TrEMBL record:
It comes from Devosia psychrophila. Belongs to the UDPGP type 2 family. This is UTP--glucose-1-phosphate uridylyltransferase. It catalyses: alpha-D-glucose 1-phosphate + UTP + H(+) = UDP-alpha-D-glucose + diphosphate. CDD domains: UGPase_prokaryotic. The keyword Transferase applies.
């Protein structure tokens, strides 16, 4: 029987330099796709997968994330007085229960591996999910739920992967696939940003993980890797010497909302998927006469 995954870590302490000046005072994870901040989508995905404790590793300017996951009594009272009960109900539904969120500071953005390590005391000696909120996934069920299903079979460490064109592998962490089906195969190696000719596959690590707590000690001693940052992939490579890793080629579509193109595309796709927005949005798009540009 596997130890249950109850806790999820959300690293939200990056500088978001690709999105300046929007991210000068606003955390990247509060950028909205239609009307929900990216961090809310990630928390929703974690709740759907059965996560009970939400750990945010924040940095400067991230107080607004803490406020987002808090009750806003003034706003709620106003909505109540104005009879906006549906909006009020939706706001309350978005919140994790009281006492089920924790916030810690990374202090310096030394890399994703360092951000994860900052959560070590809160997570303790337990397996945990790790969700990068700037990666948005549209899947049914959600990608973390698909990974939890694999975890129930295999335990150990789970990584969500997706295919990219071979010409793009050098921008990502790339895995080596062993035997097993798409929804749970042995992962036999990984490499961060390989040259195209050295890449072991075109399957990339895409921003959702289930990890065992032994990763924390490895990250503690991890020297700086690519880009002068403490890299999670380097820590996972070492952990692979002693623990099993399973890959899940998830069903669904991802949007890299840390990049402008991914973010804009996500807004279009999510807007067209909304019953209350689709028709009006399409009408405006038609007026733009995009055919000429496409
Ligand atoms: P990214 O590398 O996409 O984020 O990290 P970034 O550094 O903020 O973005 P750019 O490249 O400058 O535009 C993926 C996730 O890891 C977090 C980020 O907040 C993001 O959610 N992260 C990254 C940290 O929490 N701390 C870090 O030191 C680095």
């Amino acid at each position: 029987m596997q130890k249950r995954v109850r806790t999820a870590v959300f690293p939200v302490a990056g500088l978001g330099t690709r999105f300046l000046p929007a991210t000068k005072a606003l955390p990247k994870e509060m950028l909205t796709v239609v009307d929900r901040p990216l961090i809310q989508y990630a928390v929703d995905e974690a709740r759907e997968a059965g996560i009970e404790h939400f750990v945010f590793v924040t940095g400067r300017n991230k107080g607004v994330i803490e406020d987002h996951f808090d009750r806003q009594f003034e706003l709620e009272t106003t909505l109540e007085l104005r009879g906006k009960t549906a909006a009020l109900k939706a706001l309350r539904q978005d919140l994790p229960s009281a006492g089920r969120t924790s916030f810690t500071r990374q202090q310096e953005p030394l890399g994703l591996g360092h951000a994860v390590w900052c959560a070590r005391d809160i997570v303790g000696n337990n397996p945990f999910a790790l969700l990068l909120p700037d990666m948005l996934f549209k899947g049914e069920p959600g990608v973390l739920k698909q990974m939890m299903d694999a975890y129930e079979e295999t335990g150990g460490n789970i990584i969500a992967v997706e295919e990219v064109p071979e010409s793009e592998v050098s921008s990502y962490g790339v895995i080596k696939r062993g035997e097993g089906p798409d929804n749970g195969f042995r992962l036999t190696g990984m490499v961060e940003k390989p040259k195209r000719e050295d890449a072991p596959s075109n399957l990339i690590i895409s921003g959702r993980y289930i990890l065992q707590p032994e990763i924390f000690n490895l990250l503690a001693d991890q020297p700086r890797g690519a880009g002068g940052e403490i890299q999670l992939t380097d820590g996972m490579q070492t952990l692979m010497h002693t623990q099993e890793f399973t890959g899940v080629k998830y069903q669904g579509k991802s949007f890299d909302c840390g990049s402008k193109i991914g973010f804009l595309t996500a807004n279009v796709v999510y807007a067209l998927d909304r019953d209350d927005i689709r028709e009006g949005f399409l009408k405006e798009l038609r007026k733009l006469d995009l055919d000429e540009q496409l």
